Amino acid sequence: EAAVTQSPRNKVAVTGGKVTLSCNQTNNHNNMYWYRQDTGHGLRLIHYSYGAGSTEKGDIPDGYKASRPSQENFSLILELATPSQTSVYFCASGTGVERLFFGHGTKLSVL
Amino acid sequence: QQKVQQSPESLTVSEGAMASLNCTFSDGTSDNFRWYRQHSGKGLEMLVSIFSDGEKEEGRFTAHLNRASLHVSLHIREPQPSDSAVYLCAVSMKGTGSKLSFGKGAKLTVSP
Q1: pLDDT tens digits for B13-34?
Q2: Which of A42, A97, A104 sits opposite B102 (nearest CB)?
Q3: Mean pLDDT of A29-56
Q4: DSSP codes of every residue in A28-80
Q5: Which residues pair with B101 in a beta bridge?
Q6: Which helix (H) or strand (E) holds A7?
Q7: Burial tier of A5 (Cβ tally within 10 Å: 0-12, 13-18, 19+)
Q8: Using CB atoms, which residue from A40, A43, A99 is nearest to B46?
Q9: Is B104 helix (H, G, I), strand (E, B) or coil?
């Protein structure tokens, strides 16, 4: 089974602070995705990547940056965290129309 | 932007009775439809993926797609208490691969 590992699993940050969420996949998948999940909204796509060095904006990119330094790693960066970014964040990897493999999520609280 | 809506928002069924969940989408060029399950506090587990009109069965889970009606459903045969979870419908538009739009989810409770 493909593996997607997110770190940290839980994070408490202060408003205005910088937060980096990390994702690592050992599947050699080209595509990686960052979603956030909120009650009443389902999962919403923040940023995605088609390979090392590429990042694309998803449906709700404002306030977030992404970095894909290698095939295996995809980070989500909140330069100036706000309470509205309190959420559960999921990373996923996949190869086009094949199934996506999701990590277990990172619960972020911004106080 | 694709709109994906699920109904009902929550459903309770007895163990062994069929459970049915519905999903409508707004973009008729969508070409891949998936159902995921999420147990409380866990990640997402894909149950079934369907590309063509008709049905696709994966074990006790069957997806029905009617592209003309912009509708895809999930039927769970002989549900068990361990199937209690949130079920999410996900749709991708043609040419976007795994770039999925999700519904808000439907909470299924299976009572013994």
Answers
A1: 999 899 999 999 998 888 899 9
A2: A42
A3: 92
A4: --SEEEEEEEETTTEEEEEEEESSTT--EE-SS-TT-EEE--SSSEEEEEESS
A5: B91
A6: strand A4-7
A7: middle
A8: A99
A9: coil
